Amino acid sequence: MKKIVVLTGAGISAESGIQTFRDADGLWEGYDVMEVASPKGFEKNPKLVLDFYNQRRKQLLNVHPNDAHSALTTLEKYFDTTIITQNIDDLHERAGSTSVIHLHGELLKARSTKISRIGTPVILDWKKDMKLGDKCINGHQLRPHIVWFGEAVPLLDKAIEITQEADILIIIGTSMQVYPAASLVNFIKNDTPIYFIDPRPNITKNDFNNLSIIEKTAVEGIPELVAQLIKTN
Q1: Does 64 participate in catalysis according to the annotation?
Q2: What is the pTM of this model?
Q3: Active-site residue among 69, 104, 140, 145?
């Protein structure tokens, strides 16, 4: 069975009504991203950061997967499919995808602000508001399970390993400017077909070998590509 790796960014979730993480002005829904998405921001004003993610969490729980998310689940019937997402929502899982790697963390999870003695943080499922005073079993304040600017990306090595195995790479709704996620394309085998779906692509056909650019939204482009790949499989 062929291995398909799908790299998704904000574009696919935006079509479900989720605001994109970062615009050109460096703001996220009116907030300086460094105030709400960095360890220093959390240290400076933890209540602001917790309140910010509480609003994002409420928004997430009121939106639904779109046709693009649903189409990707169909690939699993015909291909060994792994989704590597930069998104912190759970829309891929809610649509039915069973193999999803969240490079930048998950909004519906919380983790301890302190590393445990075995070297890993305590991670909890979390769908309600998070407040100062919410603590892990070891008595430490909880924080959103998000990879903030300046922090290591724990699942990057796993994502690289999976990308190296890809027979087909699909890139959806990402600017290819957020690193280290954007570097994953450099780990595929030579001549691996790449499909790039974005209504306003900022790359050209000459940027990568064997690249096909589909200038459509995720909702338009993904179902068409999935049908094409299944037909030619």
Answers
A1: no
A2: 0.92
A3: 104
